């Protein structure tokens, strides 16, 4: 895949638009009642376990762009969480199924679609303030991957976390091949990404993926307490420190996303993903 194909697909660039209207109910934006400079973003599709869709990505980008316009008197920290029993079940299965259709697997259509999909959620890294993922429940696939792009993670003890792409017949995406090795090292990342197995919230904390593992009911309160502490620090110092901390993690990210999108496009054109999707529908393990 030639790099030149992606000259207009710059990671985290402002202003790109999906081709349809947003749905304000997909993601909610609220303010902490104690410290209003702390914003709370909540995935709000609990009946679908907050599976990530293109429409949700569009709405998420709109909110991030809105927050990026706020100064330090308006915004000092952001908490990201999910409604219901899951943080996010990952990429919407209908979205994945559509990627396997013949007209989508020709040329670079799926590569471009996946780069836009990644950007629509990884734009969270454009926020100039600390972003804390309050992982209130299960976080799977792309849903778990996007938390790796945030600055801090607090997770429920009993939450199930997995980058289960290979179990589905798909190459990992959403920056997971870039961010996970930075957190846990090459060996642990290799096992997690190649096996697609699950870990608990407690295991995530022990591995250094999460800062804290706490009872489910205290995930959001603990994240808010942490955000309030940061919101009371010097906003100039916090924002400049954040830029420094993120600089190393940003190095090589765009190349990694291009590799992921290209590899996922290859998987969409192969039969394994169809077997994986059918196995989910039939509720049995896939036979590859």
From TrEMBL:
Signal peptide segment: none
UniProt record, GO biological process: fatty acid beta-oxidation
A Pfam family reported for this protein in Swiss-Prot or TrEMBL: ECH_1
Gene Ontology cellular-component terms listed: mitochondrion
GO molecular function, one term: catalytic activity
InterPro entries reported for this sequence: ClpP/crotonase-like_dom_sf, Enoyl-CoA_hyd/isom_CS, Enoyl-CoA_hydra/iso
Membrane-traversing stretches: none
Superkingdom field: Eukaryota
Family as reported in the entry's similarity comment: Belongs to the enoyl-CoA hydratase/isomerase family.
Protein name in the entry: Uncharacterized protein
Taxonomic source organism: Eutreptiella gymnastica
């Amino acid at each position: 895949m030639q790099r030149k194909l992606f000259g207009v697909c710059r990671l985290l660039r402002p202003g790109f638009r999906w081709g349809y209207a947003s749905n304000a109910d997909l993601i909610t934006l609220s303010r902490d009642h104690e410290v209003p400079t702390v914003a709370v973003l909540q995935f709000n599709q609990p009946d679908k376990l907050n599976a990530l869709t293109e429409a949700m990505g569009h709405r998420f980008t709109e909110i991030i762009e809105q927050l990026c316009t706020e100064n330090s008197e308006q915004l000092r920290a952001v908490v990201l969480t999910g409604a219901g029993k899951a943080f996010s079940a990952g990429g919407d299965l209908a979205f994945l199924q559509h990627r396997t259709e013949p007209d989508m697997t020709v040329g670079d259509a799926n590569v471009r679609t996946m780069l836009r999909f990644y950007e629509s959620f990884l734009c969270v890294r454009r926020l100039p303030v600390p972003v804390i993922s309050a992982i209130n429940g299960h976080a799977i696939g792309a849903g778990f991957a996007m938390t790796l792009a945030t600055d801090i993670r607090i997770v429920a003890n009993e939450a199930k976390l997995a980058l289960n792409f290979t179990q589905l017949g798909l190459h990992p995406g959403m920056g997971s091949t870039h961010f996970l090795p930075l957190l846990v090292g090459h060996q642990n990342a290799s096992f997690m990404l190649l096996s697609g197995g699950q870990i608990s919230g407690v295991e995530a904390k022990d591995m250094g993926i999460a800062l804290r593992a706490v009872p489910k009911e205290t995930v959001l309160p603990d994240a808010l307490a942490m955000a309030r502490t940061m919101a009371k620090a010097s906003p100039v110092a916090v924002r400049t420190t954040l830029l420094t901390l993120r600089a190393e993690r940003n190095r090589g990210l765009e190349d990694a996303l291009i590799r992921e999108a290209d590899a996922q496009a290859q998987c969409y054109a192969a039969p394994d993903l169809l077997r994986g999707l059918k196995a989910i529908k039939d509720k049995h393990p896939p036979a590859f």
